[in-house]
Amino acid sequence: MSTRHSRDRPRPRAVPAAAARGPAPLARPAAVLAAVLAWWLVCDVLARDNAVLGRMGPGPTAVAVWDLLQERSTAVNAAASLRRLLTGLALAAVAGVPLGLLLGSRRLLEHATAPIVAVLRTTSPLAWAPLAIVLLGVGDAPVAALVALAAIWPMTLTTAHAVRGLDPAALQVVRSLGASRVEVLGTVVVPALRPHVLAALRLALGIGWVVLVPAEMLGVDSGLGYAVLNARDQLDYPRLAATIVLIGATGFLLDRLLQPPTRTGGGR
Length: 268
Hints:
mainly alpha; transport
């Protein structure tokens, strides 16, 4: 009898050796090296006689990056960009999360406003730049507003989707125990939405960082976007390439800060 039961038991699935070992440790360094080689091939071999690309190869760019890191203006520009980015993200979160809660919990309202939301979220935030400058002047305010316009829709739509996915049974149990709306929000809704909001914030950060750089080319005298424009006006193409590298590296680090920690270990 016991032999028969043992035969009927499902056998544990074998884990492939590659999955058990995890990603190859040299995969990312190899990909980075391949990208640098492609960069060198384009700038230093194929376009070496070009007045622009011929001066933007890995060698001159690396020297320019080192020079930039030693200049105080680089820290000032990075701080200005981060200040505007965080202000825009804060505005997007303050407006987008409540709007997502409202749309996700009111099907009729979401259905009625769907065309308006679609038009607004597919309009480039930079199209609002002239109006933002007219209404808010020049400086940090219009740049932060453009970042907020870009970041609000990931926050809103992700929150609305998460609200629609809430377990109705859990909400019903809490309500049957006499919980108020505020208590339902604090005990069920907020804990369930937290990972979704963090994921939306990571997505909004990437979109906001992309919008921030061109927005800083409009009427400001600091920021990494302004540094790109300034290097172009001075025809300093190695410095232009170095600034682009710093913008990408900063965006990468910001994204890593919001990336959820990976679980390790073989426990259940």
